Give the backbone structure.
Amino acid sequence: MATNMFPKTIIFILFLTICQGTNAAIKDKIQSDENNADTDTNSEIREKTVPDLELMQNRNQHHRMMNTIQSIRRHSKTKRRMKKRYKCYVCESSDCHNLPEEASHICTNALQCWKSRVRDAFGVETVSRGCTTQHDHLPFYCNNYAHSSSPKKRDTSGQYNIECCVGDYCNNGTFPELPPLPNDDHDATHINSTRNYIVLTLGMFGALIAIVMIVCVVLYIRRRTDHKRMVPSRTKHDQDTYYAGDELLRVTSAGDSTLREYMQHSMTSGSGGGLPLLIQRTLSKQVTLMNCIGKGRYGGVWRGIWHGEQVAVKIFSSRDEESWKRETEIYSTILLRHENILGYIGSDMTSHNSSTQLWVLTHYYPLGSLYDHLHRSALSHHDMAIICLSIANGLVHLHNEIFGTKGKPAIAHRDLKSKNILVRENGTCVIADFGLAVMHKPNAPLDIGSNPRVGTKRYMSPEILDQRINLNCFESLRRADVYSFALIMWEVCRRTISGGFAEEYKVPYYDVVPSDPGFEDMRKVVVIDSYRPSIPNRWSSDNLMDGMSKLMRECWHPNANVRLPALRIKKTLQKLAEASSDVKVGYDGEIYV
């Protein structure tokens, strides 16, 4: 190293000698010029121009040489300093000197040593020691911006203090201190955090409310679309406005067999059941369908509004036109109206969604069918007597013929069951669903169709299941209705409270056939095995229930000729009600409703 420094020292001494000689020459020149200042002006100005230029050049040269010398000195000093390397501590303890070797790390070949204290945005302070081994890193560690905040991001801040030093192990000892944390910064940080939580919560609730509103709007639009699709017409109190408006959906007659063509042969002008023909042709335009209340093999039953009153709308599909025709014809029969027969309003044929719909409008009963009523509640003796006697009254009116100029023919229901009997609010019942009914017209064959085994299989009589029924004899159809009525009486009595107990509702033959039995299933049980619904033994201790059980046995007898007629059943029920103290009977023999 001494060998390398010797040439540089010699060069430096030579430069210094040259600069001193030049300075002495310049000073002598200036002194001689001042001595000749008394010469005349013209010669002085003429002779002084060249020396001044030379003097300025010498001064500039002198300054450049001095700057070069100072730069060489600084460069030499920096080189000497850059070549100097130190050892530094790397630990987090306040005194790294007394720590064991495995806990204290030493950084070698360092340009500078440093120790620091850093405070993050949450006020947590951390300390560290280290070293800088590269010249490029010096400005980042050892600058003069102590206690400065770090570059701020969103809602974050921090402070740090770094002390740099030169020398072996100079970064030992206590760490630099930071100024105390201002309370307003902490409060601001807390306020910012609280505000962020509030904004996040409001955002979540806002998104949830938006989703709920979107779902509600979608459901509302879908409901309105379904309502418009299902409701082909609207009821209006002002009929002139209704028929003049173009915004309403008009219902037109459709199909080859229109209502007008059919009514010309089977409808009257109002002397029988239902409305006059002219009014019936506009029924579908005056009814608003509200909701579906039942479905069957023929279609569905809807609750509708007609002139502010609730009505039941039975809708047939076009493939069930024969059932619609038969039911319309039965309901339109003269003198059919009876308190225990479903009230008929009218029929109509409409077009909806390019398909034909056949409507039958009847009275509406909120309690629904007897099947639903028995599921909901148990019955007292009085309730049971009212239900059975009202069904018997309706059956008598159907089966009996009324003679006269315009009398009523005898009618067989052929599909009597608890689902086809509706319950009024006063507890009495009405018979409904005449889609399979048959009228007995004098001197005319029975119109029963090609298949005699129609109706509900569970309620079919033995002669229908065995195909021994005489289809040309109307009395055979009436006796089949009596068998079905016996099963209905069993369903009602089973739900009647006797001895403080009532069985749960069950359909006939629930214990021997599946839920949807076939013809062979019912034929084996009813015809071959001669099985009938079981009667509880405790009914024998109740006079009314014992009499009802005897009446059932006579009505579901295997021999159809032994079964009681409907009128005999009605009188027997009246006698049983009069003999029971639990049934309230008036002086005229009628049961109080």
